[in-house]
Amino acid sequence: MSRAFVKESEPVDELPEKLVSAHPNLVTPEGLAVIESKVARLQVELGEAQHADERDAIQRVSRDLRYWNARLATAEVQPPPASTSAVSFGTTVTLERDDGRVQTFRIVGEDESDPPKGTISYTSPLAQALMGKSVGDVVKAGGGEAEITKIA
Fold it and tell me: CA–CA separation, 111 vs 23, rounded Å?
């Protein structure tokens, strides 16, 4: 239904809250900066939406701002790895899969994860399989196996 046919007195449907992970909110220093910039951007957007009296935008931006403020409040910045002898949060791991593919991933926080760009969440099954392993170790990866060839 077009907004033109909605009476002004009709309430706007509530947007569902974004789910916040039950896992600790571990982040890299770069991840914290991204969260902070999202909060700042959303605060500006909220002000603009309020000024324009755009109820749908106010509701959407407010919901997103609540999510990112919660993530900011619970962020636990992790220092860079002290060693690269074993896979840990923040390390970059190169794998050779049993089908010959070579892949490199950095293990980061949930909100930083973007596998096509080479980052995976520390809560992902692959990251969990890699944690604590060393170069030469073989882990389950998807439907096959992968050998760790480099940790940086």
Answer: 12
